[in-house]
Amino acid sequence: MKTKILSLAIAFMAVSIQAQVTIPMPKSGPAPTVNIGKSNEFKLKNGLTVIVVENHKLPRVSATLTIDNPPFALGTKKGAESLLSEMLGTGTKTKSKDDFNKRIEFLGASVNFWEEGASASSLTKYFNEIFGYMADGALNPNFTEKEFDAVKKRYIEGLKSNEKSVEAAAARVTNLLVYGQNNPFSEYDTPAQIEKITLDDVKNYYNTYYKPNNAYLIVVGDISTSEVKKLAEKNFNNWETGKLTIAAFPKITEVSKTELDIINMPNAVQSVVTVAYPVNLTKNDPDFYAAQVASTILGGDFNSKLNMNLREAHGWTYGARGGVSDSRYIGRFSTNATVRNEVTDSAVVETLKEIKGMTLTKIDKQALEDVKAKFLGNFILTLERPETVANQALTKKTNKLSDNFYADYIKNINAVTVDDVLRVSKKYFRPEQAKIIVTGKTTEIAPGLEKLGFPVTYYDSYGNKIEKPVIEAKTTNVTVTQIADNYLKAIGGADKVKAVKTLLQKGKIETMGMSGDYTAKAAAPNKTVTEFTIMGMTIKQVFDGQKGFMSQAGQKMDLPADMTAPLGKTNSLFVPLSEGYKTAKVDGIVSENGVEYYKVVASDISRTDYYDVKTGLLMKTEQKQKTPQGDVVATTLHKSYKAFDGILIPTEVLAETGPQTIKVTISSAEVNKNVSDADFK
């Protein structure tokens, strides 16, 4: 239950509320004539192309530097670009990190960097200075070993915190399965790989690829083209070109027949269902406009066929999307939906049905007109933003599009017919030649998926082939009472444990790269107070045995019923003494990393506990929690037991909920001291 308390508390730090309003679709009218805004362009002597869009409505200017290198695989040096992205902006050869950031903050501006570019935004009166800061950070970075070590450590921690994310694993392995090995679109970072990257690797990447050869500088806002030219020449003229030698990546093999790939995530209570394969579609392709419309109909918005089926008709998901995405390198067809484990196989069947349906029958003409009207409305809205003009100019250059590509966009979308939609659907929607990729708890979803009749391959969360995971559990005659008695004996003896009426624990909490003080108070049978402070923000949760609340920064939120119900039946001091344990059952003996555990399922309090067969200690807890994204399983590891006043207490608690990891380290504990009823009010 501590996991649920902590994860809900962290989530409480950032809550968003969304409202959905259904508005009747307006009737289609004649296609409006739109004027594409004007952009100015010039090139520096080093090849840097500068695109300027003047807009003097507001006294603000923004700039974006984009290095448009072709994609390439990094192999053993994968991760150097990620660490470069983290290191850029941490000071320059003339400005310390603190001075650099403080000045930008003082001017109310923003400057950002990444491995293939930079951006800056400020009020017009400060833009000359801020533009200089962006250029200085991009061209004169100060790469120090100290900063590299700090960035590397932080980045690895971030990767590790994401290892239990079902969505991250799904995206990572899907790219690998669709694009294949040694492909720039399928490479990913791992903690082990990042450990191998050195500061010299980062410097080499920067010196090789951070060049103006394929770079574009876009400036938008309250500034003249002549002013931009002066700024660009002053700050970027000395940026030296380089010689880029980029090897072509292997040819992608298309799918010959549909296959089923299952990515095993043992902690998942939901499955990510994806249907994907590579396609050849560019913006220059005559099929582009019809493919855009067909994709919108299949899975491009709320009213799409996929969403109406999986969400509205069946209630299996919060949203289903899909369609064809174009690329000047290699496009992709992909659908995506996150569904409950028990309906995973059904979701696959319905997804394939909707894809196939697009290839069999023509859509209703009025439905087509409605989709085009909405599609075009969204396009027209984007034209209200001045940066759209600049981005369109950049896209035309990088994709080698005609000058009138965007001017004719509405005309070309409106020219799409029901026959066109059927034609491109037959060409690009190929359920008979697809990869069905399902990421989830294999032991629960595989039986249903295997019945679909497709050849099945199993993978781990990093795309390595594995044998089909099976539950290896031994039967046992040991009862819950015996397991509970062994636990009480192991931590100090039943009499001594039952004499404990209150417990006060203090220590440190770490999560999302932050740390702070942690305090927990508990009183028999089920009262709890958890309080911690991170970055000056104090978060507190109280449960008085019947009801509870959470508070943060003066805001207070009552605990939901689905949380207070199990709390009320859970002993806050020692779980086996819980009322909810009276109906618990032993689900055999399971092995993990060579250690055997008794598995105790306490459905009444929504938890499963694992007790070490040899020591009797509680080592792991799994608890199902409801979240806005659906049910998730929170896993808590109880480690490093130490004696306090004769009672063994875990001093290291690792709580994992999806990608979120919380670590609590207990430094002191007091039994039957300094806890009163007033603490729980």
From TrEMBL:
Sorted UniProt keywords: Signal
GO molecular function: metal ion binding
Gene3D superfamilies xref list: Metalloenzyme, LuxS/M16 peptidase-like (3.30.830.10)
Segments forming domain Peptidase M16 C-terminal: 196-374
Signal peptide feature range: 1-19
Any one Pfam family match given in the protein's UniProt record, by short name: Peptidase_M16_C
Membrane spanning residue stretches: none
Record bears the keyword Signal: yes
Highest taxon, organism lineage: Bacteria
Protein name, entry field: Predicted Zn-dependent peptidase
UniProt source species: Algoriella xinjiangensis
